[in-house]
Write a sequence for this structure.
């Protein structure tokens, strides 16, 4: 049986909301919310003009899945515009970033594995070469 | 660098489509498509009246995330109706099933971890007690 405080069903009111500079994070699966060992899921609502700039996850593989809006998605030094239903796969520790490329909010799912790991979850790379200047005149 | 045939961006035309009795599977991440080691992602479009009956994944943890439509989602012997943006977390080897509870097609994401594992991906439990009769008059 599951621990009574850990969820197996996560409804609209069950998400754990965190504020970030690039928009609210609604956690759907992570340690302490579900019985997550391998799977974390968070829905991000990113206002127009915002970004989660270049960063890496030393211990986690990730998928970005666009729900609505348009993402300028970077994986390493490659960039692609992603629309609803499109995705990016980010191998462990590969630098990546998500920039809202639309006039409206961008909603995407970030899927991360594992859920239990050691070391930092995230390392900011946005100030370091080549990432600081990679987007050229589009840098913000 | 990624192997040239493995994708880091998965557009609408890049998905690998598989036919199943409960509707088409569009694979977005798995071994051979992306550099997946820990994360598999598949979008399932389930017609009205269809189901992926009770089953278990001996080696994989799973999240079901509803994109559109209405799911009668079972995790163990618990059931919940899930709408768009709602989810279920299924610990490794826990029996579960997804039944389209709406008049329209149900679209959901199935997220599975890991991507590399040994043994069977899936064991059908729909003919065994207590699963065969659990849904009572709603059984199909």
């Amino acid at each position: 049986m599951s621990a009574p405080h850990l969820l197996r069903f996560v409804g609209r009111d069950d998400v754990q909301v965190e504020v970030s500079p690039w928009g609210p994070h609604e956690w759907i699966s992570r340690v302490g919310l579900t019985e997550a060992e391998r799977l974390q899921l968070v829905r991000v609502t990113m206002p127009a003009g915002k970004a989660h700039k270049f960063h890496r996850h030393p211990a986690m593989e990730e998928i970005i899945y666009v729900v609505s809006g348009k993402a300028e998605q970077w994986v390493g030094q490659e960039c692609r515009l992603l629309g609803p239903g499109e995705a990016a796969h980010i191998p462990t520790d590969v630098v990546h970033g998500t920039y809202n490329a639309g006039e409206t909010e961008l909603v995407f799912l970030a899927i991360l594995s594992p859920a239990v790991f050691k070391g930092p979850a995230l390392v900011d790379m946005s100030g370091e070469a080549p990432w600081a200047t990679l987007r050229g005149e589009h840098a913000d």
Q: What stands out?
A: The first strand of chain A starts at residue 9 and ends at 10.
